[in-house]
């Protein structure tokens, strides 16, 4: 029988899909690495699996142990799936700005969710950083993966995402474009692709306008999962050849186009990465092969990006036919 014995076996090996319409006739080949094909629906399944397996190897996580992590999104789902499979309890600490749908998904996977106020300072005892630290030190057998410092985050991409892309393109990739959140995806995948190609593959980061990676102050933006107001240890500053800042508006309009034109219902950070990839395509040569990584699916964003009223409230939908302008190159 052609069966899989565990959902975990289905992490990775995601497809590479040619994008035909959003490219508007640009000559270089544009390929999307569609990460919503992972069993938990996002790229974060890769890091969840690697972080848990390594913690088991090092004896940090023992049978019956508890995984404690401040996360409200994709990393939580990935960890919950791996935890259910391997018999661990999960406690996730989320800020109260996180929508109920996201909390419901984590609970549906069997995780316990502790909600903390967003308005307090990070060092306040009720902040979600403080609460997760306290839970990790008081729950017996607790282990905190910490995706912002855990080197298994970039390492999982070095071992899976990078080699997959190299093999799928038969070594023809010339540019890799991805958003930067923890920096794990771009640092691990980028390091592999640079090494295997002898430095030929160009690595381009996409970043929300306002985030530190593209020189911003950390001011707020609406695209979820990418950009930072701090520099995490999981981001290797030596990997990116270029960082392109993209506005919320351009990110969201492209996200909607991806659904309509390419039938790719994906999240806002995917639209952001595609805007940056198209900017790269404008000056690339016709033989170039640009791979852009799309981290998650779009169902978690139906009440925001795919909701006309929400978009209009933020002034993102001024005209129906508005073209997405290219991101600003820094
Ligand atoms: N997009 C989304 C939706 C994410 O959840 C993340 C992870 N924070 C990213 C992009 C960025 O990935 P990374 O953390 O590997 O930089």
UniProtKB/TrEMBL annotation:
Give a GO cellular-component term.
cytoplasm
- Offer an example of a GO molecular function term for this protein: transferase activity, transferring alkyl or aryl (other than methyl) groups
Which biological processes are named by the entry's GO terms?
cysteine biosynthetic process from serine; cysteine biosynthetic process via cystathionine
Question: Does the keyword Lyase belong to this entry?
Answer: yes
In terms of the whole protein, what range is present? Answer: 1 to 330 of 455
Please verify whether the record's keywords include Disulfide bond.
no
The entry sums up its family as follows: Belongs to the cysteine synthase/cystathionine beta-synthase family.
User: So which cofactors does this thing need?
Assistant: pyridoxal 5'-phosphate
Return the protein name: Cystathionine beta-synthase
Catalysed reaction, written as an equation: L-homocysteine + L-serine = L,L-cystathionine + H2O
Q: In which pathway does it act?
A: Amino-acid biosynthesis; L-cysteine biosynthesis; L-cysteine from L-homocysteine and L-serine: step 1/2
């Amino acid at each position: 029988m052609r069966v899989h014995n565990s959902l975990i076996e289905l992490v990775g090996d995601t497809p590479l899909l040619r994008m035909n319409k959003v490219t508007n006739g640009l000559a270089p080949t544009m390929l999307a690495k569609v990460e919503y094909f992972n069993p938990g629906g996002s790229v974060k399944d890769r890091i969840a699996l690697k972080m848990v397996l390594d913690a088991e190897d090092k004896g940090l996580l023992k049978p019956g142990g508890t995984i404690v992590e401040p996360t409200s999104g994709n990393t939580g789902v990935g960890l919950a799936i791996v935890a259910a499979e391997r018999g661990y309890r999960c406690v996730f600490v989320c800020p109260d700005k996180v929508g109920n749908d996201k909390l419901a998904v984590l609970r549906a996977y069997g995780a316990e969710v502790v909600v903390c106020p967003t308005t307090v300072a990070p060092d306040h005892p009720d902040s979600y950083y403080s609460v997760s630290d306290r839970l990790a030190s008081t729950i017996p057998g607790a282990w905190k993966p910490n995706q912002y410092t855990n080197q298994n985050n970039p390492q999982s991409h070095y071992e899976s995402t990078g080699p997959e892309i190299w093999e799928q393109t038969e070594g023809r990739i010339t540019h890799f474009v991805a958003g930067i959140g923890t920096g794990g995806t771009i640092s691990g995948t980028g390091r592999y692709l640079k090494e295997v190609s002898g430095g030929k593959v160009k690595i381009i980061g996409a970043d929300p306008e306002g985030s530190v990676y593209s020189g911003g102050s950390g001011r707020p933006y609406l695209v979820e999962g990418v950009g930072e107001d701090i520099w995490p240890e999981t981001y290797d500053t030596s990997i990116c050849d270029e960082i392109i800042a993209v506005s919320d508006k351009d990110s969201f309009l492209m996200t909607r186009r991806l659904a309509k034109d390419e039938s790719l219902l994906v999240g806002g950070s995917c639209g952001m990465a595609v805007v940056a990839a198209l900017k790269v395509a404008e000056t690339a040569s016709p033989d170039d092969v640009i791979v852009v990584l799309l981290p998650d699916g779009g169902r978690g964003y139906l009440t925001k990006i795919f909701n006309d009223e929400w978009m209009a409230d933020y002034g993102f939908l001024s005209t129906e036919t508005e073209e997405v302008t290219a991101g600003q190159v820094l």
